[in-house]
Design goal:
Layout (H helix, E strand, L loop, with lengths): L6 H12 L6 E3 L14 E3 L5 H11 L4 E3 L6 H6 L1 H21 L4 E7 L10 E2 L10 H20 L2 E7 L1 E3 L17 H10 L5 E4 L11 E2 L1 E3 H14 L6 E6 L5 E2 H12 L5 E4 L8 E4 L2 H7 L8 H12 L5
Parallel strand pairs: 1-2, 3-4, 4-6, 5-14, 6-11, 7-10, 8-13, 9-14
Antiparallel strand pairs: 9-12
Helix pairs in contact: 1-7, 2-4, 4-5, 6-8, 6-10, 8-10
The chain binds nicotinamide-adenine-dinucleotide (NAD).
Nicotinamide-adenine-dinucleotide binds next to helix 1, helix 4, strand 4 and strand 7.
Length: about 325
């Protein structure tokens, strides 16, 4: 597993280990944490390093590759596109090459709702047009297209999982979100509740939504982890390249998230109004019916308060 020292990857390691797999984390620790690797060995390495990849493939002879590693900030991708094309595209190509040379032909890819760009409908489906509006989203879409070519030319079966907004933390509190800087709404709101930051910035309150703030789809990280197990179950040599949305199918506005966080924490959360961010659609909510039908996936941590509670508990863990 690449990126197993990161937020979603570490939750996936836990789910895999519980299902009887040995998750081997391959991560350069540039943005992940050694403490997050608790369910299998850590092999330090960069996905852009073919020799190191070969060594690790030889050592463990994995059944499949789950690819979480990459750079994840949309804003940074706009400012430093070369970095994103290098890690997220060239790095993935290097990984795929090493994987095929090692005879591994099952691949699960962390894609993103960013492949859709500005959605036309209210609930995005996999067949909707994919027109990413920033380098981060373009990297994800390009890799998905590469995977379709690898399916026909190299027999690599792949599943691309298009996550909506990953949120929450392991309900048992063993791992959680620890990004620096943190840009995701729920941890930012909770940091403001704790007084770790002065306020939450509301980027625009005049969108065409009931309360004027943007609506997003928040999906619990444990539910995302579970989907990877199910994806492994449908992957077989020659199964082609398939993509699935992973979201709750229900949107919450930024103001609703702040209100729910205020209830969960019992704290007043200061809010300041900022300008709209370019490229932020008013509503981005996913339909996950395909994942339900084909993978048999159903979120079991869908309640927004529960999502926030698990994140809050993680943030307030001893030493947190
Ligand atoms: N968090 C979300 O809401 C979200 C939404 C959609 C898609 N995704 C995708 O899911 C994946 C995981 O996201 P996350 O939030 O856990 O991110 P994260 O930053 O917590 O984890 C990414 C991991 O990849 C490692 N890494 C980065 N570049 C590397 C390289 N060149 N070689 C080896 N390791 C490298 C980092 O050290 C880190 O441990 C990413 O691909 C991201 O684009 C995340």
């Amino acid at each position: 597993m690449t990126g197993g020292a990161g937020y979603i990857g570490s939750h996936a390691c836990k789910a895999l280990a519980q299902a009887g797999y040995l998750p081997v984390t391959y991560d350069n620790l540039s943005r992940g944490h050694e403490w997050a690797v608790q369910w299998g060995p850590l092999e330090e390495g960069d996905i852009r390093d073919p020799a190191r990849l070969e060594e690790v493939f030889k050592k463990y002879r994995p059944q499949a590759v789950l690819h979480f590693a990459g750079l994840t900030y949309v804003g940074e991708s706009v400012e430093r596109p070369e970095l994103y094309y290098d890690h997220n595209v060239a790095g993935t190509l290097t990984l795929l090459g090493a994987m095929v040379r090692a005879g591994v032909r099952r691949f699960v890819f962390s894609s993103s709702a960013a492949v859709y760009g500005t959605p036309r409908g209210e609930r995005v489906e996999e067949g909707d047009s994919t027109e990413p509006i920033n380098p981060y989203g373009r990297c994800k879409l390009f890799v998905e297209q590469v995977l379709a070519d690898y399916a026909s030319a190299r027999g690599v079966g792949s599943v691309s999982l298009r996550y909506f907004n990953a949120a929450g933390a392991d309900p048992e509190g063993r791992t959680g979100e620890a990004h620096d800087p943190e840009t995701h709404l729920i941890p930012v709101v909770l940091a403001a509740a704790r007084g770790d930051r002065e306020a939450v910035t509301l980027f625009g309150d005049d969108y065409d939504t009931p309360d004027g703030s943007c609506i997003r789809d928040y999906i619990h990280v444990t539910d995302l982890a579970q989907a990877h197990l199910l994806a492994l179950g449908v992957l077989d040599d020659g199964t082609g390249a398939r993509a699935f949305n992973l979201g709750n199918g229900r949107g919450f506005s930024v103001k609703q998230v702040i209100a729910a966080a205020s209830e969960v924490t019992g704290c007043v959360i200061p809010v300041e109004l900022g300008p709209r961010r370019p490229g932020d659609p008013a509503v981005l909510v996913g339909s996950s019916e395909r994942a339900a039908g084909i993978l048999g996936w159903k979120p079991s941590h869908a309640d927004l308060r529960h999502i926030i509670e698990t994140a809050w508990r993680w943030m307030n863990r001893s030493g947190g």
